Amino acid sequence: MPNPTPTGPGNAEHDHAISVSRLPTGQTVAELLLGAVTAAVLSIVLQFGIARIGIVEPSNGPEALAVLGTTVLLVLVFGAVVLARWFPQARWLRLGGVWVTLTTLSTLALALPLQGTRFYYGGSGGDNAFRMQYMTRMAENLIPADMNYANIPPYYPSGWFWLGGRFANLINWEGWAAYKPYAVAWIAVAGVVAFTLWSLSLPRKLALLAALATVLAGTRHGLLEPYAWPSAAWLAPIAVLTWRALSARARAPRGALIGIGVFTGFAAITYTLHFGFSVLLTVVMAVIIGVLRVRGGSSVGGTARELFLRLLPVGITSGVIALVVWLPFLLAGGLFQRSAAQHYLPEGSAFLPLPMTDPEPFGLLCLCGLVWLVGYTRTNRIAQALLVVIAAVYVWFGLSTLALLAETTLLAFRLEVVLESALAVAGTLGLVELVSYLRRRLSVWHATRLTVFAVVIAVTGSLAVLQHEMSSGLSSEKKAAYNDYYPNGTNALAEEESGEPGVWLDELHSTIGELTHDPPQRDILLTTNYDLLSYHPYWGFQQETPHYANPLAEYARRAATVRRWAHAANSAELSSMLQHSAFEAPDVFVVRHHVPRKEVYVPEIIDDADRVNPPKGKYSVTMKADAFPRQPNVHNYPVVFDAELFQGSDFVKRRVGPYTVIARR
Questions:
Q1: Rounded CA separation 590/511 (Å)
Q2: What residues does 637 pair with on adjacent strands?
Q3: pLDDT at residue 336, as a whole number
Q4: Distance between CA 239 and CA 159 in Å, rounded?
Q5: What pLDDT score does 81 carry?
Q6: 593 SS3 class
Q7: From CA 117, how far away is CA 121, in angstroms rounded?
């Protein structure tokens, strides 16, 4: 079993005598790089192997294989913690074994249920449409570009997606298709890197358990945003390192401070919310430490100067990294543009998350974590840091609610995974502490049986979390991955239902090429079928929803411009309006025309955009408007054109199913 005092010295007053990091800087960097590369390569290899299994869906076979594989790996993980002396003693062999085990666990749990589809969880709809659009854009553009609008610097952080584009180029896949293996690989990398980061503050055995707890937390919330999960998974161990670095009495730990800055910069170029939260957390920690020192007799000036000098390398490092992605947007004046990105208030943001009240195994683990944090706050640096993280999450929820007064939010629900990760790790440390305490007070016979019991409970609880997500937690997302349509007009189940918009994707794409004679990256589309923008690198005149629109693109003005076009008096006037538009006008319109034998359906607010059927002689384009703070936060509305507006010599058109493709000559 782990050390009887597994989380370190019990007296926080003497904790400053310990090095800020348990690993040397050089070894830390080497482990991070080698571990990440190992996890990425192994995960990709495993995924390609899994894709060849060929189990016909729908079937429970993939889940059965996933449960078997994860059970074996969980037994191996907990067995390695208890029976460490039976495993190879060579450091790099042990590390390699941990990397392989964590990678295989994550990959099997996520990739096996998706073995028969090319889509990731969630399919091609909802938020995944924009993620696939960004991947498709980055696969075509070596220089970061906006996912939708031409000649505008990107607003959403491009770091993760730019690397994804390079991955797609490496395996010679289209961006949308590379999204699934790339996302699963990053989930695996996040777990392996979390192990190394926890090793900076914990013994290896506990770091392995902390990494496993992090992986379990990620399966509940983190995996649906694979570009956000790494910074969420690494935030807790970095917070512990930050707390130790800022509170250390010895000379400034430069390597640790630069590493904290690298993490903060990574968050800035991958997920802005985590960047903002990390900055707040670091400043709050510095303030708390400063107040405690001043109360202990230190001078205000000296304390402020010392903490400022420690925050300085963090700020400089993170700022330099952030500017790599954000500088073009800032230079274009984006800082002063209002965005609708934060106009979202789901139920998860309205109510405080209380995972420790969940009666399931993960909730009990979080409850144990809360008890351990409260009991050890005064004597344990790790408990102090994690408690600050948890408190900061709840403060963020409060600030997000107050932000409603300014007609926005802070998207607080996105931090629920950070809260659960911190509580899960705390619960793991608390349970290990409890088992170690009981073992010291029992006979060898009883201590051995207690250890066996603890391992059985740990394996069972971990498996329960994974099985729940595979069976019900991700059931709707898995269903979408199999039912949504590929760009060739079929789905993973080989279905082709004529009433589905996805059936016409391949013919729409080929028709656009035949009418324009241009590659997709040279055409700007105004389309009512937005899936075209996810699968092909067309530029969009308008983003599907204002919440993913670049504020530099002026979403509201573009929408008003489209409505004005619809009121043109004749074809000549429309052509003139397009030529003199304040924005680059569409080269192609993809609109819906009237379908006989179907009811005319063009309400002012559309519940189902796929049901739209304009009157005879009319075309319609479905657009969206911000409805915040209502939920859903958008409403669909049709813009109706007279078909006569496109009868002039400046336009050429062709019907494709329920759509009409119109190209400007």
A1: 10
A2: 623
A3: 84
A4: 22
A5: 87
A6: strand
A7: 10
pLDDT per residue over 555-614, tens digit each?
A: 999 999 999 999 999 999 999 999 999 999 999 999 999 988 677 666 666 666 667 888
What is the chain's Cα-based Rg?
27
Give the closest residue to 114 by CA, choosing from 172, 65, 159: 65
Kindly state the percentage of the chain with pLDDT values over 70.
Answer: 95
Q: Which residues of 214-236 are buried (b: 16+ CB within 10 A; e: fewer)?
A: bbbbbbbbbbbbbbbbbbbbbbb
Sign of CA dihedral 408, 414, 416, 421: negative
Q: Are 221 and 420 in contact (CB under 8 A)?
A: yes
State both tokens at 531.
Answer: 């899936």
- Give the pLDDT of residue 320: 97
Contact 528, 657 (CB under 8 A): no
Burial class (CB in 10 A: 0-12, 13-18, 19+), 539: buried
Please state, rounded to an integer, the average pLDDT across all residues of the chain.
92
Burial (CB count <10 Å: 0-12, 13-18, 19+), residue 473: middle
Give yes or no for a contact between 566 and 641, defined as CB atoms under 8 angstroms apart: yes
Q: Which residue has the tokens 């399931």?
A: 360
Residue for token digits 């990397």? Answer: 99
Res. 87: pLDDT tops 90 = no
The predicted structure's pLDDT at residue 251: 77
Among residues 423, 419, 427, the alpha carbon closest in space to that of 395 is found at 419
Nearest one of 288, 287, 286, 242 to 264, comparing CA atoms? 242
CA–CA gap between residue 420 and residue 523 (Å, rounded): 45
Share of the chain above pLDDT 90, in %: 80
Nearest to 610 by CA among 492, 506, 503, 467: 503
What is the pLDDT, as a whole number, of residue 20?
82
- What b-and-e string marks burial along 335-370, b requiring 16 or more CB atoms within 10 Å of the CB? eeeebbbbbbbeebbbeebebbebeebbbebbbbbb
Structure letter (DSSP) for residue 116? T
Residue 522 has pLDDT above 80, yes or no: yes
| Each residue's pLDDT tens digit, 258-283 | 999 999 999 999 999 999 999 999 99
Residue labelled with tokens 């995960």: 43
Task: Decide if 599 contacts 626 (C-beta within 8 A).
Answer: no
Phi and psi angles of residue 525, each rounded to the nearest 5 degrees, phi first: -110, 140
pLDDT, tens digit, 9 for 90 and up, residues 267-326: 999 999 999 999 999 999 999 999 999 998 889 999 999 999 999 999 999 999 999 999
Confidence class for position 54, pLDDT limits 50, 70, 90: confident
CA pair distance 198, 580, nearest whole angstrom? 58
- Measured in degrees and rounded to the nearest 5, phi and psi for residue 593 equal -110, 175
Reduced to 3 states (helix: H, G, I; strand: E, B; else coil), residue 9 is: coil
Give SS3 for 199. Answer: helix
Averaged pLDDT for residues 192-199 = 97
Q: How far is CA 515 from CA 75, 508, 573, 583, 654, in A?
A: 60, 11, 22, 22, 8
Evaluate whether 231 touches 274 at the Cβ level (below 8 Å): yes
Asked if residue 629 has a cis previous peptide bond (ω within 30° of 0), the answer is yes
For 608, other C-beta atoms within 10 Å of its C-beta total: 10
Tens digits of residue pLDDT in 114-136: 999 999 999 999 899 999 999 99
- pLDDT at res. 89: 72
Burial of 13 (0-12, 13-18, 19+ CB in 10 A): exposed
Buried b (16+ CB within 10 A) or exposed e, 482-497: bbbbbbebebbeeeee
